[in-house]
């Protein structure tokens, strides 16, 4: 199975999730694709309200997930021409997904994808100044 196919499989499983309709069967499928450990870690982040959806003044949104070592930016919907359709600024994504390719994604991306479908993101309206400080804070993390 090519990388493109696996991500379209993931997308179709995610599309079947709706608020109040997160079936055991779906959880099982996600557990097989991503490993149970990663799925449980992602569900834990959602339970702890760690997935934040920042609504920006110009109408778009930005996702951030609060991790142990700070907030990470998550980009859950990159253009379909990208080989991997999502990105996270955490170290695990760089090492396990991009470099060693041992995982399909990190727990932050998985949490964001599921939380979006379940409408469980914590929504925050953000003004321009807050957004700029958010981005600069996260750029610092990427560089360190
Ligand atoms: Zn991550």
UniProtKB/TrEMBL annotation:
Molecular-function GO terms, alphabetical: zinc ion binding
Keywords noted in UniProt: Metal-binding, Zinc, Zinc-finger
GO cellular component, one term: Shu complex
One example of a Gene Ontology biological process annotation: double-strand break repair via homologous recombination
PROSITE patterns xrefs: ZF_SWIM (PS50966)
Keyword Zinc (UniProt): yes
Matches recorded under Pfam families: SWIM
SWIM-type domain: residues covered: 72-117
Name assigned to this protein: SWIM-type domain-containing protein
Keyword Zinc-finger: yes
Family matches, as InterPro entries: Znf_SWIM (IPR007527)
Domain of life, per lineage: Eukaryota
């Amino acid at each position: 199975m090519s990388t493109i196919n696996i991500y379209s499989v993931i997308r179709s499983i995610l599309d079947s999730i709706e608020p109040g309709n997160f079936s055991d069967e779906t959880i099982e499928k996600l557990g097989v694709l991503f490993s149970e450990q990663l799925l449980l870690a992602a569900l834990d982040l959602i339970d702890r309200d760690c997935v934040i959806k920042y609504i920006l003044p110009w109408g778009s949104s930005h996702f951030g997930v609060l991790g142990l070592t700070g907030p990470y930016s998550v980009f859950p919907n990159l253009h379909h021409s990208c080989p991997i359709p999502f990105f996270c600024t955490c170290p695990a994504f760089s090492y396990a997904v991009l470099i060693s390719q041992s995982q399909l994604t990190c727990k932050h991306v998985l949490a964001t994808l599921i939380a979006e479908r379940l409408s469980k993101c914590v929504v925050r309206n953000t003004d321009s100044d807050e957004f700029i400080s958010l981005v600069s804070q996260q750029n610092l993390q990427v560089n360190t």
